[in-house]
Amino acid sequence: MNPSSLIGQRALVAGGSRGIGFGIALGLARAGAQVAVCARGQQGLDQAAAQCADEGLALHTSRCDLADAAQLAAWVEQAAQALGGIDILVNNASGFGGGDSEAGWEASLQVDLMAAVRASRAALPWLRRSPAGCILNVSSINGLVPTPRTLAYSTAKAAVNYYTGALATELAPERIRVNALAPGSIEFPGGRWAERREQDPALYQRIRASIPFGDFGQVDAVAEAALFLCSPAARWITGQVLAVDGGQSLPG
């Protein structure tokens, strides 16, 4: 990817203080975009801003509970005003609602699905003013194939995939692109697979062995795919869900 391919673009990353979200935000900034991120925790936001500053990059940060519709709408408006508009919206946040509990369903539906819906709705007036508006939803391969242990999360991600295609169809006449990434098992410091390596090594090794490429994925691989889908190189791509998983979702 051309390191200056997004100069002049204004990007919002919902859930962008750590892991995949921060990897995408950092990649967008390195490619020349102005970037705003939000997250619930101030400490993570401060660390993200400091890491960008170490590279001479600016990052606009705000605290926001993405399950709160009013907070989310206010963040999109505030970030758009700070950056002077919106060209790219990345919906990355997850409530990680595993299992079949009421709390798991609430977290998954409110954060994984409805936060993407609400952020997209709030950003659309700004995206319509952009000559190259695009939305990127971060889903999961769990939304492609029924997966045990994560019923609520997987169902919400399947809904995100459907929403991606439906919104892309609706916005295609306006040339606003909508795509999704479906990462596989990605390991990063402080993430769930890093925790399970210590807490549930049997599960960690079983999942690792199931990945055809032989290891867990890294954040950079997802961020690079995100940059492609947000860039002019993907100008003729919309309504797609791209698996980034080292073959993990392949049959067999």
Automatic annotation (TrEMBL):
UniProt entry tagged with the keyword Oxidoreductase: yes
Keywords in alphabetical order: Oxidoreductase
Residue ranges that the Swiss-Prot or TrEMBL entry lists as coiled coil: none
Keyword Oxidoreductase on entry: yes
Family label: Belongs to the short-chain dehydrogenases/reductases (SDR) family.
One Pfam family named in its UniProt record: adh_short_C2
A molecular-function term among this protein's GO annotations: oxidoreductase activity
Organism: Stenotrophomonas koreensis
InterPro entries: NAD(P)-bd_dom_sf, Sc_DH/Rdtase_CS, SDR_fam
The protein's name in its UniProt record: 3-oxoacyl-ACP reductase
